Amino acid sequence: MSSGKGGNNRKNRQRFSGRRDESGKHSKKHSENVVFEEKFEKNRVSPQERPQWTAPVLPANPISTPDCPWCGNPIKDIATAICDKETGSPVHFDCVLSRIAGTESLGPNESICYIGGGRFGVVHYNNPPDTKDFSIKKIFEWESKDVNNEWRRPISEYFSIT
Question: Which of 10, 74, 76, 95 gives 70 a disulfide partner, CB atoms 3.0 to 4.6 angstroms apart?
Answer without folding.
Answer: 95
